[in-house]
């Protein structure tokens, strides 16, 4: 029987196999991370397609945090600048832990660095017309002008302040009821703080009450101790009132940002979720109807009364600003646009999330550091002598106009130690130099605002490697004493005047709680009012060790995993 001729000879098959193997190896190497020359990185991560992703996922499973992983890479390499590979097939992320260079980049090197698409990936789908993710330019400046009046002293003191104050008092009354029902036991305060912060910024945004906390107060006011539950850990659980539809919608949308935060394709993944997930589709519909209803009402108020006293909220102010701009430009006013809606929704969400998180950290630090809490309360009592003698709360005018260095120091120390905003991100617009290393155009730079130099021993930098503007700013901020840098100590922010008084020094040492953004002014006002009323009315007693963990959790902000209170009356 004749032998059958094979279509491929053995040598040909071998050659094809070798070629395929070579191509495979080439593609594999092409897919590996491309380190930026000179910047420290993990060699093991650079030799796998997923880069640092496996290590970061393990870190997150063990700690529920991700930004501390970035900090740990710089510490591991003992360098204030490092790089990680967390976006397969993408550019490395540069990690910067040096305060002075970070401040320099955000405030003086704006032609070299601008907002990163990282924030666009997180927030674009929720608010494509919001300035938070826009690059600097004419559109961004127009949006800043639209919202500019909401950061004015007049709006802060006369509109936002009173609205925040009224909402805060409702939370104080709620905690008075919880203190009565808990009878000396601890309870989880994190939900109350979140709802209270949203109530406050809602009132400032819309000029009305959403009613989340007041409904809970109404429910608990009619209960006795037998109707609450004592858990195995000793904490008390209370019945919960039904939340308003608007509150549920806003929180559902706000929390959906975590979809983008935890996805390798954040913008696409989040966008599909908003279009396909029934809960998110419903929440967007409620949100759009809510904004339209309030915008129409604000426009009608403006038509009825074009004087300044028509302004009762941020929404009124924005509608008034649009009417003025339209009149100057000779066009019809467009008060209900994508830009207006997205800016107002961003004002609402951003003002709620960071404030709630910072309050939770503040409560934890004051609970742990009883001496600081007592000193702050005594300082407030001395400042608001009229209210103390009358057995009353200080008025909103008294709080807003007050100058209390120890209160400012306590709030700033809470920012420093709590790390509500873990990182500020900028993208290199050009090939730029950071600490002697060239950063390619388009690279994201994550400037860590907690870690070395902030709450831990700083990583040393050769002064000659700094930018010229950074060198020139050397003496504009102090540095923290290393021996107690990790300790909660408000006194570090105070300096003595020639008269022997204490004065708050915002430049006492490294801190970047809200980056270089303008909304810090509103957040500071909220914190000043709310924390004053809490410390004025309650003693924050020590909580049991199982309820006192300081472990964090990375969500939209860096939140404490536990926030329990054990209250007593402060008088």
- Average pLDDT, rounded to a whole number, is 89
**Helix/strand-derived class?**
alpha+beta
What fraction, in percent, of the residue positions are helical?
40-55%
| Secondary structure tally, helices | 22
Strand content: 5-15%
Using DSSP, what is the number of strands? Answer: 17
Rg from alpha-carbon coordinates: 27 Å
Main β sheet profile: 5 strands, mixed
Low-confidence stretches: none
Strand order across the largest sheet: 1-2-10-7-3
Shape: globular
For the record, give the distance between the C-alpha atoms at the N and C termini, rounded to a whole number: 110 Å
Question: Features of this protein?
Answer:
571 residues; 5-stranded mixed beta sheet; Uridine Diphospho-n-acetylenolpyruvylglucosamine Reductase, domain 2; Cyt_P450_sf; transmembrane helix; membrane; oxidoreductase activity, acting on paired donors, with incorporation or reduction of molecular oxygen; globular; Cytochrome P450; alpha+beta; 22 helices; two-stranded antiparallel sheet; 17 strands
